[in-house]
Amino acid sequence: MSMRTTLAVLALVGLPFAGCGGPKEETPPPGPAATSAAGPAGGAPAGATTGSASISGKISFEGTAPAPEKIKTSADPKCQAMHPQGLERQTIDAGGGGLKDVFVYVKSGLSGTYPAPTEPVLLDQKGCMYQPHIITVQAGQPLKIRNSDDTLHNIHPRPTANPEFNIGQPRQGMESTKTFDKQEIMIPVGCDVHPWMRSYIAVVGHPFFSVSKDDGTYEIKGLPAGDYEIEAWHEKLKTQTQKVTVKDGEKAKADFSYKS
Amino acid sequence: MAGRPGDDRAGSTLRGVPAFDRSRHLFGAVTAATTLVLIFVGGLVTSTGSGLSVPDWPLSYGMLMPPMVGGVFYEHSHRIVASLVGALTLALALWTARAEPRPGVRRLAWAALAAVVAQGVLGGLTVIFLLPTAVSVAHACLAQTFFCLVIALAYATSREWRDARAPDVDQTGLRGAALTATLIVYGQLLVGAVMRHIGAGLAIPDFPLASGRVLPPVATTPVLVHFAHRIGALLVLLAVACFLARARRAGDPRFTRLGAALLGLVGFQIALGAATVLTGKAVTPTTLHVATGAAILGGCWLSTLRAFRLRRPAPAALAVPVARPVTQS
After folding, report:
1. 8-state DSSP, A219
2. pTM of the model
């Protein structure tokens, strides 16, 4: 008898207890919410120190990316049904001509204050995956977490500077809103029910950040003139920094190159 | 009350020794066996990283029976088996309170009930406070303590306990050897629980050497805890071998059989420990390692109970404080 079969027999003992009670909805069914793949996050609020400069560039990758990791989803038949061809995870995604999902932000050089936008950023659980993979939010900005799947998920970020939490969303359409008050790059977030689900939350103290697109390009808009240190972060390839100087109305370039 | 074969409840107690209650003894033994299953399932929860796959407690996602998918399968199975053990312990405690003439055994039953309740609360706290190491280690250790309490309850109601009215003399130090082995195994399980819950299971990635050396080249906390667990394994091996040697010298098959089985289990356990490291903490060897550790503790504890019940202290040991000559200078 396999281990799962043995446990299933033991689980049957609990069946008489089943069927009483149900999960509580944390919030009403979902409405439209903002995502934030590129900053400024929801737009800098009035009074914030912004400008007309921008920094853009491309993240390139040299070498051979590892083969995608095949993920077994059989632990949850509903997840398996959503991916009949199987699921793959590619942590170094350079198939679009550049490196995707690199978080780029102004690490230092800013002096203004940037109140958090009130518009929430959405972290969606869809197809037993997180969307987007890199979630960017300004410190104090609401993070709306939604379960779009017809199966249960738990959401468990593991921050070091912010409080850790672990919440469950057993029903499709459930939403919860959380806030991280301190800058922290990055906060890994995972689902303990489906261990392959893993994502990262970047909490930044200002709105000047971006995430590289499929082709590896990114753009940080609305910067005031100044001398900045720009950092690029990738979950596998880690960080790189550059010094960039921009003037009002100017578009500066800052490309990053990673190697395998 | 009419007694069944093997059930001496109809008979009177003799010199404070109760009649044999076969049903209650079997119920205690079943509770102990189910506790070992519970420890195995609890080990599965940690081995599969499912400890937080159900984020709430005492309900699971607000339900009594959530969908058994992914990590929920392991965590909720653990809760179900734990509930079963809790119910068995409650029944055993009530049964003992009603039928048991010995106050000490009744207290033992209530202590087991208190332990299983505390264990449930600790399990809940590990979930609510996101697996703090101290609480998780306490949960692991209380599980072993509770297992020992239930074994004691089952043994105290056994026929062997009742019939042991003229204990043999402990001339070979069986009592001390069994007790020492039990304490060393318990200490080893404590170190193992710390290692497991601080994530130091692979802090030394090779076996039998430590990063290619006899002594580990670095001395970080995870490495030290892991290395202490390996040293502890050698101490357990030594203690159990010592117990078996004394049992053989005593020539008592009740102890030699148990000692040989324990020594075999310790060998198996060391192999499982090696497999745990060499497979990068694969679920099956890692979980079996936890359960086998509990079985070794249970065996050593049972040996201790038997030794204290079946062997009285050697006359020499008794005589020392009494017969020592008093000299005056």
Report:
1. E
2. 0.82
